[in-house]
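Same chain as my last thread, 479 residues:
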Amino acid sequence: MEPEAENRGVKAEPSLGPATASPPAPEHGILDTSVVIDLEHIDPAHLPDQTFITAITLAELAAEACREAGATVHRGGTYVCMEGPQFSTLAESRLYRAWDANQINIAPILPSFLAMRHNLRLGGGCRPDGTLASGAPCPGAQEVPIIRQGLITSTFANSSQTQSELAQNAAGSFGNRIEQSTLNARLRMNQQFAQIMYIDNGGDSIYHAAQFAARRRFDRAGLLLNAAYTLGKSIDNLSLDPVHASVGGGLTTTASRTPADARNYRNERARSDYDQRHVLNIAGVYELPFGRGKTWLGNAGGLLNGLVGGWSISGLYTYQSGEPFTVRSGALTHNASAQSRAALKEGVALPKAKLQEKPGVIGPVLFPDASAFTFPEPGELGLGRNIFQGPSFHNLDASIAKTVAATERIRVTLRGEFFNALNHPNFMNPRDASVGSPAITSTVFGQTCCVTLSTASSATTNQNGESWRVIQLALRISF
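reply #2:
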């Protein structure tokens, strides 16, 4: 049995106090209920009141408790610590969500909407109510039940707004207008209110990740390298905090994050809006090998050393894979609370979102046009949420510094810092672009340009990088 435990960690029972009844020690001296205690993170304030710590280290206290429990104390060794939780707990998974508890139900009027669309598609001047301008019935026209029931008039059915809704399969928008004109259709649960914003903890989120970090110092070469990589995946059914949203729980009919159907959040389960599968950060500092005590000109005098010595360069490179986004239909095909997602045209394969040039458009686009997409059928929601991938982000920040010893006690450092040193543009996905939209009805559909930021504060620099190269100078005096 080793005399003491190393500060980094020991295997012990979950209690740090003295053992009152020690079970027989197993063959290898490790209890079945053993845990690994990271002593660097133990707060002495959480130890029992009778514990008195003087020169005795926490490692010695834990090691003594292990010995009394009959467990073998290992000095040294390696253990793996997963910083976390990297796997979401139940408490972390239940998040706030907001939804319209008074969402319109279009099921009662859907047969009438389909009948009007059929009549309009007959052509030959046939109107949605199934009649010609002369009032004569159209050959092959279908009866519209809600007109027969007196819920709407033929004038309402044949209006230009109704015909526009029929062209976009916007049954939700049509139902909303009916509900505004009469209460007899009973399309809302509580007809005295237009919208009832309900907030509960029914939101679901889960995150899995593997994190890797490497650090290497080359003292003789004057080089320090750090690298960190995360492979992760975040899944949820709402990527929005409704509590801190400015209005209406952050949910509007046109917002890209509004659930397409508030009555079926399971349909929203997909990659989170902020999911980034790969995140890589590489940082390094290199002291140039010139000047006194260095490889080159190691015996340089005061003036020469002042010119060539004390130089260092550093850099930080960041790569993040793109965030997912949803292509919206731009129409209220399912309800009046949110636009549905776009559908694919029959026989068209799912297009891949990729940066490409488009004549007459400033900046790249992810789709050349919306020709692959169409409106979902009335009452349907379209494609899945967040099935398209936005552009990736990468950025290099660099600096160069010169340090001079003014006196034995005073050192002066002049730094030049270059944010987005390569002047590399990073484009957003259409959901977040300042000029761009994920809705197929928008004139700027699929555009990704341009992130327009004023000279950044540290907050916007950390969050977005720079739209352009920014150079700043700094002077530091140490004494």
